[in-house]
Amino acid sequence: MDRIKKISMEILETYKEKFGTDFRENKKIIDDIAIVRSKGLKNQLAGFITRFIKREIRQNEEKLAKEAKSGNEERTSEEQSASTNQEEPLEVTETVSENKSEESSSGNKV
What we know:
Structural class: mainly alpha
Low-confidence stretches: 93-97
Radius of gyration: 32 Å
Number of strands: 0
Strand content: under 5%
Distance between the termini: 96 Å
Number of helices: 3
Mean pLDDT: 81
CATH class: Mainly Alpha
CATH architecture: Orthogonal Bundle
Largest sheet: none
């Protein structure tokens, strides 16, 4: 497998932008850019390159998702703490003043 990895990495260094996640397409690309007489070797190279590209895409997606998730959590916690600090005193103040008004108006009637 070391031979397959080495050859595949050499191919990817030069032609990485041509390869994708489709095995058959990668096999055709290998036919175009290299002379590989062995069908088995060509399949192994195309398979390794396909797995490598898929793994790279998945790792990038996970990294972006993790960054987005941590960024959203930070923003959400900051927004919650900011909104909580601003809203609570206002609500308590309004509620207290309303209760005092009701008590004083009920006291005036008696």
